[in-house]
Amino acid sequence: MLRRREAEERAERAAAAARLREQEQRLFELSIGAVTRLPDAQRVLLRADPPEPEPRQRQLDEQAVLRQALSDDFDVDSLLETDEALSFRRVELGPETVRKLRRGHWALQGQIDLHGLRRDQAREALGAFVHESARRGLRCVRVVHGKGHGSPGREPVLKSRVRRWLVQKQEVLAFVQARASDGGAGALMVLLGQP
């Protein structure tokens, strides 16, 4: 009995839906009037193949990686002027910027210590630190690369590399060797700007 009732209800719903479609079709025909089909002109409709999608985000990501990439083989001396006190400034900045940075004109807002890191680890950590510091709006940070006392031959491994890496970062406006109280020959004071 229950199955029969369900079948009747389904049949009623289907009949109601068919009546509604028929009413809508009549209403449409009354609204627009008689319709005449256009003659078939034996045309072939060609569909243009859609263009290949451009991986724009991947291209942007690759460009960002190239901007972020730091090279050990980058020759600082060929492109930028550095002095014997290990200072650097972008050409658009005046020499007073280096003097102010050396004198501690800007308050130290952050630092990274690269002691004990291998070269690749230090490069990645420095790149991420500079990028994040600039993104957060930090103006002056310290990069501690060490004096090399714990390195084989007591030669600083990271000191010259850090200098090369920093000049490749767009966010870095200038840097100077830190004052003795801030780490001396084992650290750099870095002035950052927005990339």
UniProtKB/TrEMBL annotation:
Parts of the chain that traverse the membrane: none
SUPFAM superfamilies cross-referenced by the UniProt entry: SMR domain-like
Pfam (any one): Smr
Superkingdom field: Bacteria
InterPro entries in alphabetical order: Smr_dom, Smr_dom_sf
Listed name of the protein: Smr/MutS family protein
Residue ranges occupied by any Smr domain in the UniProt entry: 112-193
PANTHER family hit by this protein: DNA ENDONUCLEASE SMRA-RELATED
